[in-house]
Design a protein that fits this description.
This protein has 137 residues and is an alpha+beta fold. The chain has a domain of 95 residues. 21% of the residues lie in helices and 31% in strands. Strands 1-2-3-6-4-5 form a six-stranded antiparallel beta sheet. The two termini are 29 Å apart.
């Protein structure tokens, strides 16, 4: 069965920030190029729990990623902008309706790190530890 993925070009530019969602899912994704980080200040929903992936290339032009979770992406990305030089875009997964909790995004991080480690498509050396699955009801 097919699914419809809606992509909204926030600035009207396919190279800029995008908002992506599937209509019957509880989360949405915001794609933010590093060059457009200022848009984060305009997005209130980025002060809520989020699972995120930073994607880029290392000095040898090999694909590299960092997977993380936070209670406030707007504040967390400031640290990554300063400390992590490799990334070129952020994929931020947040709740469509504010219903995702810290435990929910911890679970998404746990699943994503396990899948990404097995797939071996990205160098994950920035992820220093393997997150444990949180207790969810």
């Amino acid at each position: 069965m097919g699914k419809t993925i809606t992509t909204y070009l926030i600035e009207g530019n396919p190279q800029g920030a995008q908002y992506v969602f599937i209509s019957n899912k509880i989360c949405k994704m915001l794609l933010v190029p590093r060059a457009n980080l200022s848009i984060i200040n305009l997005r209130e929903e980025l002060q809520n729990p989020a699972f995120y992936i930073l994607i880029g290339e290392d000095e040898n032009q090999q694909s590299k990623a960092y997977l993380g979770e936070t209670e406030n992406f707007k504040e967390r990305i400031k640290i990554h902008d300063y400390k992590k030089k490799f990334w070129q875009k952020a994929l931020v997964f947040i709740s469509k309706d504010g219903a995702m909790t810290k435990a929910d995004v911890q679970y998404l991080e746990h699943l994503a790190v396990n899948v990404a480690s097995k797939a071996k498509r990205f160098i994950l050396d920035e992820n220093k530890q393997t997150p444990k699955a949180p207790n969810l009801p």
